[in-house]
Design brief:
It is a single chain. By secondary structure, the chain is α+β, with helices and mostly antiparallel strands. The chain has a domain of 115 residues: Jelly Rolls, CATH 2.60.120.10. Helix content is 38%, strand content 23%. Strands 1-8-3-6 form a 4-stranded antiparallel sheet. The chain has a 4-stranded antiparallel sheet with strand order 2-7-4-5. A hairpin with a 5-residue loop joins strand 4 and strand 5. The radius of gyration is 17 Å and the shape is globular.
Length: 177
């Protein structure tokens, strides 16, 4: 497994496509590439977090448990998506667990470098705002079908899984086993 991630590889990820080489180098300072098997916990709710991760490949679920111990899957994250950015942005504890559903390759970035680049780069700051808005809209849509019949909920869940498994956000994509 390669131990270094290049500036060009980072800029090839759509979220980071607008950053310059100098900012990319700051983000990649002390980065780590990690490969994780299915069923592994990447982030634990309420833990302190000083880094963020970029999913290079694979699929993971973001989950939380209610007071009765029932799991709620809040979202799925796939290639090109960020994890842990909320803790880096607000300095608070992690808001949910993240568990791998397939083999996952991650790029771990230092939060301090991300904050420096974010403060100096309006397009990256707008990218974070768009990411969070998209996640909120997605949750709103998914909560909206909760009262629907079982067939509608199942079809919606399958389309969501297919979209998150696809680099093109395709609801007809093949899903992982």
């Amino acid at each position: 497994m390669p131990t270094a991630f290049s500036v060009q590889e980072l800029q090839a990820i759509p979220f980071f496509s607008a950053i310059n080489e100098q900012d990319a180098a700051v983000l990649l300072d002390r980065h780590r590439l990690v490969e994780v098997m299915p069923g592994q916990t990447l982030v634990m709710e309420a833990d302190w977090g000083e880094n963020l991760m970029v999913v290079i490949s694979g699929l993971a679920k973001v989950r939380s448990y209610n007071a009765d111990g029932e799991e709620s899957v809040l979202s799925l994250v796939g290639a090109g998506e960020l994890l842990g950015e909320l803790s880096v942005l607000d300095g608070d504890a992690r808001s949910a667990d993240v568990v791998t559903l397939s083999p996952v390759k991650l790029l771990k970035l230092q939060g301090s470098g991300f904050q420096r680049v974010l403060q100096a780069n309006m397009s990256l700051a707008l990218g974070i705002a768009r990411l969070e808005a998209s996640r909120l809209r997605d949750l709103n849509r998914r909560f909206g079908v909760q009262k629907s019949d079982a067939t509608t909920r199942l079809l919606d869940a399958l389309a969501y899984l297919a979209r998150k498994s696809s680099a093109e956000d395709n609801p007809l994509a093949l899903m992982p086993p």
